[in-house]
Design brief:
globular; alpha/beta; Rossmann fold; 27% helix; 181 residues
């Protein structure tokens, strides 16, 4: 047996042992309901019956978080994840709208779906990005301890009609098995 074959077999055995050990080890959280995107079904969804053919490009605004106990930049790293999830729908091209672009356009780093929009906001976004619609994303509640929960609100608004194409508001909760007795 050559040295390389021995190393390859040793690495294979190491990987198998690690995989078996990880599968057998107990975890404080039951992540199974969150293990795949298909297991989550939001209840509070509003959707247009048919996606308009005119909406080919959607500007995804930075994630807004108006919570006072969460640092402003805590969720900003998740902006690409939200955009990727929207892109997975294959309904349109979802393009990023950076915080610096939004600040330059409105004077704010993020825009909430519950706030009053600046005058001609949708038209300015369309002129800047070439988008036919705008996606607003917002964290409404967040609790990383005990019963872990995250509340979010999302809305896609068509610029031409100023109508809502899609909206969602939900809170996901998961009880910490380790601390619940």
């Amino acid at each position: 047996m050559t040295y390389y074959v021995f190393i390859a077999r040793a690495l294979l055995m190491w990987n198998v042992c690690c995989a078996v050990g990880l599968c057998a080890s107990p975890t404080p959280y039951d992540w199974s309901p969150w293990s795949s995107a298909s297991s989550y079904r939001p209840a509070n969804v509003l959707s247009a019956p048919v996606w308009p053919q005119a909406v080919k490009r959607v500007a995804v605004l930075p994630l807004a978080c108006g919570l006072s106990d969460v640092p402003a930049d805590y969720f900003s790293a998740h902006d690409p994840i939200w955009r990727s999830a929207l892109q997975g729908s294959h309904r349109a091209e979802f393009v990023a709208f950076s915080r610096s672009d939004l600040t330059r356009l409105t004077g704010r780093a993020s825009v909430s779906t519950a706030q009053l929009l600046p005058p001609d906001f949708l038209e300015r976004v369309a002129a800047f990005s070439g988008a036919d619609a705008v996606a607003f994303l917002e964290i409404t509640s967040f609790n990383p301890y005990g019963t872990i929960s995250i509340g979010f609100r999302a809305r896609i608004t068509e610029i031409a009609s100023k109508g809502t194409l899609w909206a969602l508001e939900d809170v996901i909760q998961k009880k910490n098995k380790k601390n619940s007795k």
